[in-house]
Amino acid sequence: MEELDLHHIFSLGLILVMIAAGTTAIAKKCSQPYPIVLVIVGTIIGLIDIPVMEPLITFITEGEVFHFIVITLFLPALLGEAALKLPSSQLNENKKPIIALVLIGILVSFGVIGFSSMWVLQLSIPAAFVFAAVMSATDPVSVLSIFKTVGVNERLSTVIEGESLFNDGVAVVLFNISAFSLLTYTDLGMIGAAHGLWEFVKVVSLGFIIGGALGYVVSLLTKYFDDYPLEILFSLLLFYGSFILAETIHASGVIAVVTAALILGNYGAEIGMSPATKLNISSFWDVAALLANSLVFLMVGLEITRIDITDKWGLMFAAIVIVLIARSAAVYASLFFVKEAPPRWMHILNWGGLKGSLSIALVLSLPRDFTGREELLIMAFSVVLFSLVGQGLTIKPLISRLGVNKKEEGNKEFEALLARVYRYKNAVAEITRVKENLFLTDTATREMLDEYENTLETLQEKMEHLFQTHPHLKEKQQATLLRHSLYAQHEAVERLVKEDIISNEAGEKELDIITNKLVELESE
Fold first, then answer.
1. Where do the coiled-coil regions begin and end (predicted)?
2. CB–CB of 175/365 below 8 Å?
3. CA-to-CA distance for 255 and 178, rounded, in angstroms?
């Protein structure tokens, strides 16, 4: 019977994956941020009574199960994937705003939310600062997916991604201290504060040490193997191994994963990975992260429907307002003296500090006898839902309004010319097609064709002039052409191997050369 139940749960889980994949595909096709769409779809599924899905929804919305799936199963993969592909050079270029947000911003947010929750919401000290820690974690997935659709400045994307990677680790440490240490040391005044500070330093430092050591060892291993399936396995073991080891000795698993992934993605990639390996590892983690993100946000939507919010509207509204005020204070206070962060960036960073699945998973991990747990759940869910849907849907218009997505010089003119060339070329093709199919005469079509062809010549001349004025436009087109050429070459060699015209060994050599050129093109 147990086997049948497990088989049934697995089948329903597969249906959940299909729903997540389908929703993500539609959202991407419509150029919409898929995390927000998934939360909405998950909420709708949770509200509608679907008998066949009820066992699975009940299972995954159990507090312990949700916490395990998000924290232990998906979080190392999501953090590892993001840190693996974040160049240390970009982090270094933007270190001042990132450090300011992580060291100053999170403490400002933690303090504002903690004390406001005590005085305004009348929460106990542990409950108030647990809520503060939970709401200090930022989830970049939604906002970064929006950034990609509108072409936001790459440095701004790096800042918000760098902040969230380390911010999540610090927030988890603050959560553990608030949830467990404060219960013991609340009445000890300075001794309790000193103990909390020591715990913070110890947990974060151990996380850096474990992640750094394991990342360095695995990076050295890559020097002795040029086998990308094996190196993908190394990265998988590194991310989950560093997380579990750190958590086992009460260090920060999040900090350990981020540190290990940064070292592997930069030092390890430099000393031991071929371009083909880099491309394949990147592709593997792209798929893993997409699957994890899709399921997590769908689960968030399902989980939200399980909370009874009857007569709690005042509490929910107050929680949202407090978190918004705290985020504003954190961003503007920490970046006020940082020249590398202009005011427009601050506005985007402020409104783009979204809360997500980590916040919910942390609250659900609280012991059931924790004083104020039910209120914390309601507050956390309300903030996360408002953050993902309210802020998530309005961040895109804000980005456009502030002009943070302005493109390189000459791009607008080039795009206008390209659109007109495309129009007239299609018009010429359609006239030619209609002429042949309906047997129209040259007399009837020649005049219109001449007009369009003359216009095309003029547009081509303008584009050539634009290429001379802005060489980067020509280089961008040539890069696109080269990429398609390399894809075609790759496909041609694979066909030769498949038809047994050339050997696997000869084919692999040629495919490696092509893959290396593709990686070089992407890095440029």
1. 442-469
2. no
3. 18
Measure Cα distances from 117 to 95, 319, 326 in Å.
Answer: 32, 8, 11
pLDDT tier, 329 (very low <50, low <70, confident <90, very high otherwise): very high
Three-state SS for 354-371 is CCCHHHHHHHHCCCCCCC
Query: Looking at the predicted structure, is the pLDDT value of residue 32 above 60?
Result: yes
Three-state secondary structure string covering 484-499: HHHHHHHHHHHHHHHC
- For residue 38, give every residue at least 6 positions away whose Cβ sits within 8 Å of its Cβ, in sequence order, or none: 20, 23, 24, 27, 294, 297, 298, 300, 301
**Cα dist from 405 to 32, 155, 162, 517, whole Å:** 16, 12, 19, 30
Q: How far is CA 420 from CA 324, 425, 451, 455, in A?
A: 45, 9, 14, 9
Of 123-132, 221-230, 464-473, 489-498, the poorest mean pLDDT is in: 464-473
What is the distance between the alpha carbons of residues 112 and 124, in angstroms, rounded to a whole number? 15
Structure tokens at 205: 């430092």
3 state DSSP class of 1: coil
Separation between Cα atoms, residue 157 and residue 230, nearest integer Å: 31
For residue 464, give both structure tokens: 């050539």
Task: Give me the amino acid identity at 14.
Answer: L
Please say whether the beta carbons of 387 and 172 come within 8 A. no
Give the C-alpha separation, 356 to 389, whole Å: 11
Which residue's structure tokens are 């799936």? 69
Is 168 within 8 Å of 354 (Cβ atoms)? no
How many residues are present in the chain? Answer: 524
- The 8-class DSSP code of residue 387 comes to I
179: closest CA among 131, 119, 114, 231?
Answer: 131
What local confidence, expressed as pLDDT, does residue 3 receive?
45
Q: What whole-number distance in Å separates Cα of residue 300 and Cα of residue 389? A: 12
Number of H helices, E strands in the chain: 26, 0
Distance CA 524, CA 522 (A): 5
Which positions ≥6 away from 432 have C-beta within 8 Å? 445, 449
Helix (H, G, I), strand (E, B) or coil at 405: coil
* DSSP character string of 192-239: HHHHHHHHHHHHHHHHHHHHHHHHHHHHHHGGG---HHHHHHHHHHHH
Q: How many CB atoms lie within 10 A of CB 186?
A: 13
Residue closest to 287 by CA, chosen among 239, 234, 232, 237? 232
One-letter amino acid of 134: V
Q: Is the pLDDT of residue 53 over 70?
A: no
Tell me if 330 sits within 8 A of 390, measured CB to CB.
Answer: no
Nearest to 146 by CA among 359, 394, 357, 382: 394
Which tokens hold the place of 511?
Answer: 């495919």
Element (H, E) at 126: helix 125-136
Q: 211: which residues sit within 8 A by CB, 6+ positions away? A: 242, 246, 255, 256, 257, 258, 259, 260, 263
The 10s digit of each residue's pLDDT in 484-502 is 888 888 888 888 888 888 8
Q: pLDDT-derived band of residue 353, with 50, 70 and 90 as boundaries?
A: confident
Single-letter amino acid, residue 200:
F
